[in-house]
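2024-03-11 09:14:02 DEBUG pipeline.ingest accepted 1 chain
2024-03-11 09:14:02 DEBUG pipeline.ingest length=159
2024-03-11 09:14:03 DEBUG pipeline.predict start
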Amino acid sequence: MDSDDYSTEDSKKRKMDEFFGNNRRSNRTPRNKKDKRLEEMLALMKGMSADQKELKEELLKLKGENEVRKTIEIIDKERRKNNVVMNGLKFDNNEPEVLVKDVKAFLNQQLKVNITPKSVTRIAERTWIIELQNEVDKRKIMENKTKLKGHERRKSFYK
Protein backbone atom coordinates (compact mmCIF):
# COMPACT_ATOMS: atom_id res chain seq x y z
CA MET A 1 0.00 0.00 0.00
CA ASP A 2 1.18 3.44 -0.85
CA SER A 3 1.01 6.42 1.40
CA ASP A 4 -1.50 7.95 -0.99
CA ASP A 5 -3.88 5.03 -0.54
CA TYR A 6 -3.69 5.33 3.20
CA SER A 7 -4.52 9.02 3.30
CA THR A 8 -7.54 8.70 1.00
CA GLU A 9 -8.96 5.81 3.04
CA ASP A 10 -8.45 7.72 6.26
CA SER A 11 -10.09 10.86 4.89
CA LYS A 12 -13.05 8.80 3.63
CA LYS A 13 -13.46 7.30 7.10
CA ARG A 14 -13.40 10.74 8.73
CA LYS A 15 -15.98 12.06 6.29
CA MET A 16 -18.23 9.08 7.00
CA ASP A 17 -17.90 9.60 10.75
CA GLU A 18 -18.83 13.27 10.42
CA PHE A 19 -21.73 12.44 8.14
CA PHE A 20 -23.25 9.90 10.54
CA GLY A 21 -22.71 12.07 13.61
CA ASN A 22 -19.79 10.35 15.30
CA ASN A 23 -17.95 13.60 15.95
CA ARG A 24 -16.64 14.83 19.25
CA ARG A 25 -19.14 17.65 19.81
CA SER A 26 -22.21 15.46 19.97
CA ASN A 27 -20.66 13.04 22.47
CA ARG A 28 -19.77 15.79 24.98
CA THR A 29 -23.20 17.51 25.21
CA PRO A 30 -24.79 17.12 28.67
CA ARG A 31 -28.24 15.57 28.39
CA ASN A 32 -29.61 15.71 31.95
CA LYS A 33 -30.92 19.29 31.89
CA LYS A 34 -32.37 18.97 28.43
CA ASP A 35 -34.09 15.67 29.23
CA LYS A 36 -35.78 17.15 32.31
CA ARG A 37 -37.00 20.18 30.40
CA LEU A 38 -38.20 17.99 27.56
CA GLU A 39 -40.14 15.77 29.95
CA GLU A 40 -41.69 18.81 31.63
CA MET A 41 -42.74 20.22 28.27
CA LEU A 42 -44.21 16.89 27.20
CA ALA A 43 -46.18 16.67 30.46
CA LEU A 44 -47.51 20.20 29.91
CA MET A 45 -48.50 19.37 26.35
CA LYS A 46 -50.37 16.24 27.50
CA GLY A 47 -52.24 18.33 30.07
CA MET A 48 -53.07 20.92 27.44
CA SER A 49 -54.37 18.28 25.05
CA ALA A 50 -56.63 16.88 27.79
CA ASP A 51 -57.93 20.39 28.49
CA GLN A 52 -58.47 20.90 24.78
CA LYS A 53 -60.56 17.70 24.56
CA GLU A 54 -62.70 18.88 27.49
CA LEU A 55 -63.21 22.26 25.85
CA LYS A 56 -64.24 20.61 22.56
CA GLU A 57 -66.81 18.47 24.37
CA GLU A 58 -68.17 21.52 26.19
CA LEU A 59 -68.35 23.46 22.92
CA LEU A 60 -70.32 20.66 21.26
CA LYS A 61 -72.70 20.58 24.22
CA LEU A 62 -73.22 24.35 24.02
CA LYS A 63 -73.83 24.16 20.28
CA GLY A 64 -76.52 21.55 20.89
CA GLU A 65 -78.15 23.74 23.54
CA ASN A 66 -78.03 26.71 21.18
CA GLU A 67 -79.77 24.70 18.45
CA VAL A 68 -82.51 23.69 20.91
CA ARG A 69 -82.92 27.32 21.97
CA LYS A 70 -83.24 28.46 18.34
CA THR A 71 -85.81 25.75 17.64
CA ILE A 72 -87.86 26.82 20.66
CA GLU A 73 -87.74 30.45 19.50
CA ILE A 74 -88.93 29.46 16.03
CA ILE A 75 -91.80 27.38 17.42
CA ASP A 76 -92.80 30.19 19.79
CA LYS A 77 -92.76 32.74 16.96
CA GLU A 78 -94.92 30.46 14.79
CA ARG A 79 -97.35 30.00 17.67
CA ARG A 80 -97.67 33.78 18.25
CA LYS A 81 -97.89 34.61 14.55
CA ASN A 82 -101.71 34.47 14.52
CA ASN A 83 -102.29 36.35 17.77
CA VAL A 84 -103.89 39.78 18.15
CA VAL A 85 -103.69 41.78 21.38
CA MET A 86 -106.66 44.03 22.08
CA ASN A 87 -106.72 46.65 24.81
CA GLY A 88 -109.80 48.28 26.30
CA LEU A 89 -112.18 45.35 25.92
CA LYS A 90 -114.29 44.64 28.98
CA PHE A 91 -116.00 41.27 29.24
CA ASP A 92 -117.77 40.15 32.39
CA ASN A 93 -117.37 36.42 31.94
CA ASN A 94 -114.03 34.53 32.12
CA GLU A 95 -115.16 31.19 30.70
CA PRO A 96 -113.29 30.35 27.47
CA GLU A 97 -116.33 29.37 25.37
CA VAL A 98 -118.28 32.48 26.39
CA LEU A 99 -115.27 34.72 25.75
CA VAL A 100 -114.84 33.30 22.24
CA LYS A 101 -118.55 34.04 21.50
CA ASP A 102 -118.29 37.57 22.95
CA VAL A 103 -115.16 38.37 20.92
CA LYS A 104 -116.77 36.96 17.78
CA ALA A 105 -119.81 39.15 18.34
CA PHE A 106 -117.62 42.21 18.99
CA LEU A 107 -115.58 41.64 15.83
CA ASN A 108 -118.78 41.11 13.80
CA GLN A 109 -120.50 44.25 15.18
CA GLN A 110 -117.62 46.71 15.32
CA LEU A 111 -115.28 45.60 12.54
CA LYS A 112 -117.87 43.95 10.29
CA VAL A 113 -115.65 40.87 10.05
CA ASN A 114 -117.02 37.35 10.47
CA ILE A 115 -114.15 35.60 12.27
CA THR A 116 -114.23 32.89 14.94
CA PRO A 117 -111.19 33.04 17.23
CA LYS A 118 -109.46 29.86 18.39
CA SER A 119 -109.10 31.10 21.95
CA VAL A 120 -109.19 34.25 24.06
CA THR A 121 -106.87 34.77 27.02
CA ARG A 122 -106.93 37.59 29.56
CA ILE A 123 -103.49 39.10 30.27
CA ALA A 124 -104.61 42.20 32.20
CA GLU A 125 -107.85 43.77 33.40
CA ARG A 126 -108.87 45.09 29.98
CA THR A 127 -106.24 43.44 27.75
CA TRP A 128 -106.82 40.22 25.84
CA ILE A 129 -104.84 37.94 23.55
CA ILE A 130 -107.01 36.66 20.76
CA GLU A 131 -105.61 33.61 19.00
CA LEU A 132 -106.94 33.31 15.44
CA GLN A 133 -107.20 30.38 13.06
CA ASN A 134 -104.80 31.73 10.43
CA GLU A 135 -102.98 34.80 9.11
CA VAL A 136 -105.83 35.70 6.74
CA ASP A 137 -108.15 36.29 9.71
CA LYS A 138 -105.48 38.38 11.39
CA ARG A 139 -104.99 40.45 8.24
CA LYS A 140 -108.76 41.10 8.04
CA ILE A 141 -108.76 42.42 11.61
CA MET A 142 -105.70 44.61 11.00
CA GLU A 143 -107.21 46.06 7.83
CA ASN A 144 -110.46 46.94 9.63
CA LYS A 145 -109.08 48.15 12.97
CA THR A 146 -109.51 51.77 11.87
CA LYS A 147 -113.26 51.24 12.31
CA LEU A 148 -112.66 51.24 16.04
CA LYS A 149 -111.64 54.92 15.96
CA GLY A 150 -113.84 56.93 18.31
CA HIS A 151 -115.07 53.76 19.95
CA GLU A 152 -114.41 53.24 23.67
CA ARG A 153 -112.71 49.92 22.80
CA ARG A 154 -110.53 51.39 20.09
CA LYS A 155 -106.98 50.37 20.98
CA SER A 156 -105.75 47.29 19.22
CA PHE A 157 -102.41 46.04 18.03
CA TYR A 158 -100.80 42.72 17.25
CA LYS A 159 -97.66 40.88 18.23
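2024-03-11 09:14:41 DEBUG pipeline.report The helical segments are 3-19, 24-28, 32-80, 96-111, 135-144.
2024-03-11 09:14:41 DEBUG pipeline.predict end
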